[in-house]
Design a protein that fits this description.
By secondary structure, chain A is mainly alpha-helical. Chain A has helices at about 10-45, 50-55, 70-75, 80-110, 120-130, 135-145, 155-175, 180-190, 195-205, 205-225, 225-230, 240-245, 255-285. Chain A starts with 11 loop residues before the first helix and ends in a 6-residue tail after the last helix. Chain B has a single domain, classed as MetI-like (MetI-like fold, Orthogonal Bundle), CATH 1.10.3720.10. Chain B has helices at about 10-35, 55-60, 65-95, 100-110, 115-130, 135-140, 160-180, 185-195, 200-210, 215-230, 230-235, 250-260, 265-299; strands at about 40, 50. Chain B is flat and about 70 Å long. In chain C, the strands form four sheets. In chain C, strands 2-1-3-13-6 form a five-stranded mixed beta sheet. In chain C, a hairpin with a 2-residue loop joins strand 4 (about 155-160) and strand 5 (about 160). The termini of chain C are far apart. Classes of the chains: A mainly alpha, B mainly alpha, C alpha/beta. Chains in contact: A-B, A-C, B-C. The interface between A and B is large, with 107 and 113 residues.
Chain lengths: ~290, ~300, ~450
C-alpha cells in the first residue's frame, strides 16, 4: 500500500501491491455501485412487460416492450398522479428549506454557545430521533385534530420539519465542532454582529453539510407515508406515496403496473438527482476549512 | 468561547423559539399524549379505564416484546458494522488515487437511500423469492441446488436476510455524510501523511478517524436510532414472520395498536421503545467516550 | 444543579399545560363542531340536505377491475351522487391495508368518517365505545327490509342491536380451485372428497414437477380465513363457533378445535403444498395455479375473480372447476362446509345523529349501496350475491366458469361462519401469528390453542 514515496521510484514489489490493490478496490466499488443502480434498470425494463410475462420470468428482458402500464396510469383520472406530484413537490420543497435553515441555526447555537438549557435542548432533539411514529399514529392524529391543523395544504410540513430537524441539527453540530473557533473570534474583533457572522461567515463554510442535509431530507420527505396517510383525508391534497396506494387493491396486485407507478412517481426526484448529482456532490465535498 | 462574541440571551431565544415550538408540538405533545394513554386500558374510542402501571407491568413480562428488542439489537450491531463501517471503508477507498470513476460511485452509491422503503422491500422480496428469486436462480446456475431454501421462512436466517437490504440501502447514505466530513479536513494533512509513508490503513485510523470523530459519532447515533425504530423494511418483507422470528419493537407496537386494537398497551409499547432506545444510545455514547479516552491515554 | 432541575421542571410544566389543553379540548367538545356551513336547513323529508357527506371505503379503481363487488359498489355510489346533486359526497378511497390502519386511527381518536365500512370483528368494541350508530330501527324502516337476508346481519350485531348494513358481495373464503384436466390424468374425475385421495394424487403431480395445491400465507390471515374456518367447522360444528362468539363456554382449547389445528399442521407438513406457502401471499400463490405450476389452489372468492379475469380465453379457463375443502379424517361435525359471508357493513358514525338532515342523507346512501340496485348489478354482471336477495337469476347467460362458481358458492355446499368476522382482532392476531409458526413446526397445536384462549379471555 505504499503508493506514495516518490512517484517515479516505486519498487517492483510495491508496484505489484499497487496494481493488486487497484483491482481489488475498483472491483469492490464497481460491484457495489452496479448493485445500487441495477434495481432501477430492472424495474424499468420489467415495467415494460405484461403482468403474465413478468410472473413467468422476473429477470428476463421484455419480449415485446410496451408502455401500456404507463398509459393506463397516466390516463386514469382516479390516480390523480399529477396533482399528487405537485403536492409532493410543494411539501418537500418548503419542508427542506425550513429544515436546512432551522437545522443550521439550532445546530450552530447548540454546538457553540453556552446558555442555560443547552444540554436539555440537545437531549430533547436527540429524543426526536427515537420516536416510533408508527405506533404513535393515534396520538399524532388526536393532536392535529384538536388543534385543527390536519388536512390543510401545509399540514405535512409541520411534522416533516419537526422530524427532520434532529438529524439536521446533529449533522450541523458535528460539522461546526470541526470549524476552528478563531474564525468567529476574528469576526467579532472586526465588529461583525452575531447574526452577520452566523449567516455571512459560518453558513458558507457549512455548505457541504447543509447540502448533505438537504439531499437526505428531500428523499425522506418525498417518500414519507405514515403521516400523510393519517393526516390527509382530502384526496386533492394527497402526496405521491398516498396516490400510489391506489395501484394496489385488496385482492389484486399487478407487479409490473406497480413498478411503472413506482418509477413514474420517482421520476421527478430521480431526474433531479442525476441531473444535479455533480453539483450536489460538489456542494458536499467542496469548501474545506483552512485551519 | 470568548464572552465578547456571545450574543445576548434574547437573541438566542429569538433564534430558537420557532424551531423548538414546532418541534415540541409535533414530537413531544404526541409522545406525552401516548404517555397519558399508556395508563389506561383503552381499545380506541372515548371510553378508557385507568389501570395505573398495569400496561408497563405487562410489558416487562411480554416475551414477544423482549424478543423483538433482541432483534433490534441484532440490527443495530449489524448496521453499525455494515452501514457505518463499510461506508467508512468506501470513503477511504474513494480518497485513494488508485480508484477510478469516483463520481459514479458517489452518485450510484447514494441512490438506494433515495428509494422508499416499500420499493426496497419489494425488490428484495424478489431476490429471496423461492421459485423465481434471483438468489435461488444464482444457486441453480452454480449447481448448488441442494442449499436452495424458502429463504424468508427460515427462522434462523431471517434476521440476517432482512438486515442485508437495510445495510445495502444505507451504505451510500453514510458514505455521503462521511464524505462531507472528510471534505472539511485539510488536504495538506492527508498529503503530508502520505509523504510520511503512512499506509492507507494507518492513515485512516490515525489521521482521518480522529478528525471526523464527531461526524462518525453522529452517524452511529443515527444508525442506532434508525434501527431501534425500524419498521417499513420488515413490514414489507416479512411482517415480522415467520411467526415472530423477525418481529421488531416498532412493528410489534403497531400490531398491538392496530391489528389488536389495544391502543393503551400499544402506547405503553411506544413509550417503552422510546425509553429503551434512549438507554441504548446513552450506553453507546458512553462506550464510545470510554473507548476513545482509553485510546487517547495509550497514545 | 438546582437550576438544571428547575429547568427540567419548567419544561415539564410547559408540556403538561400544552397537553392538558389538548386533552380538555378532546373531552369537551364533540369532534364534529368544525363542520362547515350549509347544514342549517332542517326538513322532515329525506335528502333536503345539501352540503358535504363523507364516505370512506376501499374500492379503489384498481380493485374494481375484475372484482365484482368493488365494481358494483363504485357504480352505485356514482349513481347516487348523480341522483343527489345537492350533496357533495367526499370520498376517501384507500387500498384495503391502508384503509384498515386509517379507520383504526380514526376510531382511536373518536373521529370516524360519517359513513364507512365496518369490519365484523370491530362491532362489539366500537358499539360499546358509542362510536357507531345503532341502526336497528333504520334497518327495520328500510324500504328494502323485506328483501334482506337476515342471517347476514349476525357479524354486525351486539347486545341485540344491529350496527351496519352488510355491504359488497357475499363470497366464499375457502374454495379449492383446480384444473380438472390434470386431475383427470391423475385418475380423478373431480377433486377428491378426502385428503387421503389428495395425498394419493401427490405422487402423480410430483412426477410432473407440479405442486399439488398452491397456498399463500405470508399475510398470516390466509390460513385462518381460507382454511381453518372451514376445517375447524368440520371438527367442531357450528354450535361451538356460536358458543365462542356468544361467550357461551366454548374454548379454543376444546379437543375438537385442537384436533383441527393438529390436522392443519399435519396436512401442511405432508408436502402437498408449495414449499414456500409461508413466504408468499395468496396473490403469488394463485399465480402458481394460473401458470400451471400447481394443479389446484385454495383461496377465497377474491382470488377466483382474479383467476377468472386473468385466465379468460385460455384452455385452463375451460377446465377450471371448484370444490370444497376435502373432509379431514376424524372430522364428523359437519360436511361440505365453506365459510362464506359479507365481511364488511356500511356503518354510520354516531356523531352524524346530531344533524338529522345529514343523517337522513347518510341513511339513504347506506340503503342504496347495499340495496337491490347493487344486488342486481352484481347478480346480472357477475352472478354474485349481495345483501338483498335477487329472485330468478338467469344463470344461462353466464359461461360455465361463472355458473360453476355460483353453484359452488350458493347452491351445492353448506355455509359456515368466517372466524375473523367475529370476536376481536386481538385474538385473531395472536392466533394467526402462532398458526404461521405452527405450520413451520415451531409450536405445538396445544400451545397455539392455549395462547389463543388466553388472548380471548383477556380481550373479549
Amino acid at each position: 500500500m505504499v503508493n506514495n514515496k516518490k512517484k517515479s521510484g516505486l519498487s517492483p514489489a510495491s508496484k505489484i501491491k499497487n496494481s493488486l490493490l487497484y483491482i481489488v478496490m475498483n472491483t469492490i466499488l464497481m460491484v457495489f455501485s452496479l448493485s445500487c443502480i441495477f434495481p432501477l434498470v430492472w424495474m424499468f425494463y420489467s415495467s415494460l412487460k405484461e403482468k403474465r410475462e413478468f410472473n413467468a420470468d422476473i429477470m428476463g428482458l421484455p419480449k415485446s416492450p410496451s408502455f401500456s402500464n404507463y398509459k393506463a396510469i397516466i390516463t386514469n383520472k382516479d390516480y390523480r398522479i399529477f396533482e399528487s406530484v405537485i403536492n409532493s413537490l410543494r411539501t418537500t420543497l418548503i419542508s427542506v428549506i425550513l429544515i436546512v435553515i432551522f437545522g443550521f441555526i439550532v445546530g450552530y447555537i447548540l454546538s457553540r454557545l453556552k446558555f442555560w438549557g443547552n444540554r436539555l435542548l440537545n437531549l430533547i432533539f436527540l429524543m426526536g430521533l427515537l420516536i416510533p411514529i408508527h405506533s404513535l399514529l393515534v396520538p399524532i392524529y388526536t393532536v392535529f385534530l384538536n388543534t385543527n391543523l390536519n388536512n390543510k395544504w401545509f399540514t405535512l410540513i409541520i411534522p416533516y420539519v419537526a422530524f427532520g430537524l434532529p438529524i439536521a441539527i446533529f449533522l450541523v453540530q458535528g460539522f461546526v465542532k470541526g470549524i476552528p473557533i478563531e474564525l468567529e473570534e476574528a469576526a467579532a474583533i472586526d465588529g461583525s454582529s452575531f447574526s452577520r457572522t452566523l449567516f455571512g461567515i459560518i453558513m458558507p463554510i457549512c455548505k457541504p453539510i447543509l447540502s448533505t442535509v438537504a439531499i437526505v431530507q428531500v428523499f425522506s420527505c418525498w417518500n414519507e407515508f405514515s403521516f400523510a396517510l393519517v393526516l390527509m383525508k382530502d384526496r386533492r391534497l394527497w402526496t405521491v406515496p398516498l396516490a400510489m396506494t391506489q395501484f394496489t387493491g385488496q385482492f389484486s396486485s399487478d407487479y409490473t403496473k406497480i413498478m411503472a407507478a413506482m418509477l413514474l412517481t420517482m421520476l421527478p426526484i430521480v431526474v433531479f438527482y442525476f441531473a444535479f448529482s455533480k453539483q450536489i456532490i460538489k456542494g458536499m465535498v467542496a469548501g474545506a476549512v483552512k485551519g | 468561547m470568548l464572552q465578547s462574541i456571545r450574543p445576548k440571551n434574547r437573541v438566542i431565544f429569538a433564534y430558537l423559539v420557532i424551531p423548538v415550538v414546532l418541534y415540541v408540538f409535533s414530537v413531544f405533545v404526541p409522545l406525552m399524549t401516548a404517555g397519558y394513554f399508556s395508563f389506561f386500558e383503552w381499545k380506541g374510542g372515548p371510553n378508557k379505564t385507568f389501570i395505573g402501571l398495569e400496561n408497563y407491568v405487562a410489558l416487562m413480562k411480554d416475551t414477544i416484546f423482549w424478543r423483538s428488542f433482541s432483534h433490534n439489537i441484532y440490527l443495530v450491531i449489524a448496521c453499525i458494522i455494515g452501514q457505518v463501517g463499510i461506508a467508512f471503508v468506501f470513503v477511504m477507498m474513494l480518497s485513494s488515487n488508485l480508484v477510478k470513476l469516483k463520481g459514479i460511485h458517489r452518485t450510484f452509491g447514494f441512490f438506494p437511500s433515495t428509494v422508499a422503503a416499500v420499493s426496497i422491500g419489494f425488490i428484495w422480496t424478489m431476490v429471496y423469492d423461492y421459485k423465481r428469486g434471483i438468489l435461488n436462480w444464482v444457486l441453480k446456475l452454480i449447481g448448488k441446488e441442494d442449499i436452495i431454501k424458502v429463504w424468508l421462512n427460515e427462522s434462523a436466517l431471517v434476521m440476517l436476510l432482512v438486515s442485508i437490504p437495510l445495510i445495502w440501502q444505507f451504505i451510500g447514505y453514510y458514505m455521503v455524510i462521511l464524505l462531507s466530513a472528510t471534505s472539511s479536513i485539510d488536504k495538506e494533512i492527508i498529503e503530508s501523511s502520505q509523504i510520511d509513508g503512512a499506509n492507507g490503513f494507518q492513515r485512516a485510523v490515525h489521521i482521518v478517524l480522529p478528525l471526523i470523530k464527531n461526524t462518525l459519532l453522529v452517524c452511529i447515533t443515527l444508525c442506532i436510532a434508525g434501527n431501534m425504530k425500524v419498521f417499513d423494511h420488515i413490514y414489507v418483507m416479512t411482517s415480522g414472520g415467520p411467526g415472530y422470528d423477525s418481529m421488531v419493537m416498532a412493528l410489534y407496537g403497531y400490531t398491538v395498536s392496530f391489528g389488536q386494537q389495544n391502543m393503551g398497551y400499544g402506547s405503553a409499547i411506544s413509550l417503552g421503545i422510546f425509553v429503551i432506545s434512549l438507554t441504548v444510545i446513552g450506553g453507546g455514547q458512553l462506550l464510545v467516550t470510554l473507548l476513545s479516552k482509553e485510546r487517547g491515554e495509550k497514545a | 444543579m438546582k437550576r438544571k432541575l428547575l429547568g427540567v421542571l419548567l419544561v415539564l410544566a410547559m408540556m403538561t399545560t400544552l397537553f392538558v389543553g389538548c386533552a380538555k379540548k378532546s373531552d369537551g367538545k364533540p369532534a364534529a363542531t368544525d363542520k362547515k356551513e350549509g347544514t342549517e336547513d332542517k326538513g322532515g323529508d329525506s335528502l333536503e340536505y345539501s352540503g358535504d357527506l363523507e364516505i370512506m371505503h376501499f374500492s379503489t379503481s384498481e380493485e374494481s377491475q375484475g372484482n365484482g363487488g368493488s365494481d358494483g359498489f363504485r357504480t352505485v355510489i356514482a349513481n347516487w351522487e348523480k341522483a343527489n346533486p345537492n350533496i357533495n359526497l367526499v370520498q376517501t378511497v384507500l387500498a384495503n391495508d391502508d384503509y384498515k390502519t386509517q379507520i383504526a386511527t380514526l376510531a382511536g381518536a373518536g373521529d370516524l368518517p360519517e359513513v364507512f365500512l365496518l369490519q365484523g370483528m370491530h362491532t362489539k368494541a366500537w358499539a360499546e365505545q358509542g362510536l357507531i350508530l345503532d341502526m336497528t330501527d333504520i334497518i327495520n324502516d328500510s324500504p328494502y327490509n323485506s328483501q334482506y337476508d337476515d342471517a347476514l346481519f349476525y357479524p354486525f350485531s351486539a347486545e341485540g342491536k344491529i350496527y351496519g348494513l352488510p355491504a359488497l358481495t357475499g363470497g366464499t373464503c375457502a374454495v379449492v380451485v383446480y384444473d380438472s384436466a390434470v386431475w383427470k390424468e391423475a385418475g380423478f374425475d373431480a377433486f377428491p372428497e378426502t385428503w387421503d385421495d389428495v395425498l394419493k394424487a401427490k405422487e402423480f403431480f410430483d412426477g410432473k414437477g407440479m405442486d399439488t395445491v398452491a397456498f399463500g400465507n405470508s399475510g398470516k390471515w390466509q390460513i385462518n380465513s381460507c382454511f381453518l374456518s372451514a376445517v375447524g367447522d368440520r371438527f367442531t360444528g357450528p354450535e361451538w363457533t356460536y358458543s365462542l362468539i356468544e361467550k357461551g363456554g366454548a374454548k379454543f382449547t376444546d379437543q375438537p378445535f385442537v384436533d383441527a389445528l393438529k390436522f392443519t399442521q399435519e396436512i401442511f407438513n405432508s408436502g402437498l403444498f408449495n414449499p414456500d406457502f409461508n413466504a408468499i401471499n395468496n396473490e403469488e400463490a394463485r399465480e402458481y395455479y394460473i401458470s400451471g405450476d400447481a394443479s389446484a389452489f385454495i383461496g377465497g372468492n377474491w382470488d377466483v375473480s382474479y383467476i377468472q379475469a386473468t385466465l379468460e380465453g385460455t384452455d385452463l379457463y375451460d377446465t377450471t372447476k371448484f370444490a370444497v375443502i376435502p373432509q379431514p379424517e376424524g372430522a364428523t361435525a359437519s360436511y361440505k362446509t365453506h365459510d362464506i359471508g359479507l365481511g364488511y357493513a356500511v356503518a354510520i358514525s354516531s356523531k352524524v345523529a346530531d344533524d338529522p338532515a345529514k343523517l337522513a342523507a347518510a341513511i339513504d346512501l347506506a340503503y342504496e349501496i347495499t340495496g337491490p340496485q347493487f344486488a342486481e348489478y352484481v347478480a346480472s354482471n357477475y352472478a354474485l350475491g349481495g345483501l338483498t336477495k335477487v329472485e330468478n337469476i338467469d344463470l344461462s347467460k353466464f359461461d360455465q366458469f361463472t355458473q360453476d362458481f355460483y353453484n359452488f358458492s350458493y347452491v351445492d355446499n353448506n355455509p359456515c361462519e368466517i372466524y375473523d368476522s367475529y370476536i376481536s382482532g386481538a385474538v385473531w392476531d395472536v392466533l394467526n401469528t402462532d398458526l404461521q409458526t405452527m405450520l413451520n413446526n415451531g409450536i405445538s397445536p396445544e400451545d397455539v390453542a392455549a395462547n389463543a384462549q388466553k388472548a380471548y379471555d383477556e380481550n373479549y
